Amino acid sequence: MNISAVLLSAGFALLLDSGLCAAAAPAGSPDLQPQDANVSAARSNESEDVAVTAQIRSALAADEALSADAKRIQIVTNADAVILRGMVRTQEPDRIETEVRRYAGSRQILNQLTVIDPN
Fold first, then answer.
1. How far apart are CA 114 and CA 79, in angstroms?
2. CA angle, corner 17, sides to 15 and 19, nearest 5?
3. The pTM is what?
């Protein structure tokens, strides 16, 4: 381990101890907390949450204006939020959010979509 890594580790540990920073979970971890909300990003297996995800997935699949990438976005639903992740074209995030709002109920919608240029 080089000196930079040691210093970085020590600095991160101090931030954790001070409460100024939360430990980051590994990429893909189901317990990852979104940076812009205090809600869990974990997928729920509750029947209502699973049904909401299925309704959203069906609505996106039926929308002929959406690209194939937009129809394959990751949708994570739990009691607090619907989290959207994936790559979409410039005009698609608003359209996707409109569909999600129809089914999300009181859940917060966390748009973590990445806009790509199709060219």
1. 24
2. 70
3. 0.66
